[in-house]
Write a structure and sequence with these properties.
Blueprint: H1 3-6, E1 10-15, E2 23-29, E3 32-40, E4 52-59, E5 63-68
Parallel strand pairs: 3-5
Antiparallel strand pairs: 1-2, 1-4, 2-3, 4-5
């Protein structure tokens, strides 16, 4: 799977994402749901468990940079 194909996909935080933290998100992809290590996209703050996020960048094989999908 190439980098561009995951950019823009929605996921849900399953482990807190934030500066200095390696979090986790689950993304529906390839007919199922997969977990990825997650880092905050530049300019993003702490993102709590349960928050819907958008994938901003994918670093194969299992890392993504994310930002909150909706303002809270």
């Amino acid at each position: 799977m190439g980098d561009a194909s995951m950019v823009g996909m929605l996921g849900r935080v399953t482990g807190t994402v934030g500066p200095g933290l390696v979090g986790e998100v689950i993304v529906r992809i390839r007919g199922g749901a997969e977990h990825f290590l997650a880092y905050p996209a530049p300019g993003s703050d702490r993102i709590e468990v349960g928050t819907v996020v958008v994938v901003m960048e994918h670093l194969p094989p299992r890392s993504v940079y994310v930002t909150a999908a909706y303002d809270s």
